TrEMBL record:
GO terms for molecular function: agmatinase activity; metal ion binding. It comes from the Eukaryota. This is SPEB protein. The keyword Amino-acid biosynthesis does not apply. Mn(2+) binds at residues 130, 153, 155, 157, 244, 246. Its cofactor is Mn(2+).
Amino acid sequence: APSCRSSRFNVPPSALLVARPVGVCSMMRLPMQASAEGLDAAFVGVPLDTGTSNRPGARFGPRQIRAESAMVRRYNGSTGAAPFDSLRVADIGDVNVNLYNLPDSCRLIRESYQEILASGCVPLTLGGDHTITYPILQALAAKHGAVGLVHVDAHTDTGDTALGESIYHGSPFRHAVEEGLLDCGRVVQIGIRGSSYDPEPHKYCREQGFRVVPAEECWMKSLEPLMREVRAQMGDKPVYISFDIDGLDPAYAPGTGTPEIAGLTPAQ
């Protein structure tokens, strides 16, 4: 069968030449590598959901995303994106998390990402509940210093403790603030909505200098103007992009662990 490796870059194989069900189930059917060495970007799975408070199952996310990604082709005609023409990308498998110990999983994730970043590669993460963002940000900040954040989510994930535990899917960005991992003047949270335990649910975020864009400010409109503002705010310094599937309205993604109505649309 035709190879998905070129002389310089890896490319997703065309289904006109290689049947979609054929081969190893990797992201976009790209080659698998044991490490990030020699790559510009790498897909990495973090199959962890022991930090979730409601419906579990995100541990199966990386595997299912890879399976569905067989439908993704190498060019995007709408945006003109052609990443495989200039970047060497591969799938480097999963972090071997500890499903019985959440703090230890955070250590394992942090150490794995430190190795990936040391190679000069940009990690593209397949989660996993949002707890995983905390150790990833620790690794990023150790290399780059405090980073900007574009965070699409129904929730701000800046909680303090839950049932006496401080590490869970609702607290990664509070830890990030407390440890100086974020450049708080370059943090934007988009799509925030839903009921709250607090009469001022966004107070903490705004006190830190975050820009919070509630879902109701996104309804029935293009988000292109907002994203132009976000790009200008982020500038040319390192930025972490975090996309929680519950940022979408559950009409489009009903399987999320913590659904909130009236969210973003796929087009947005």
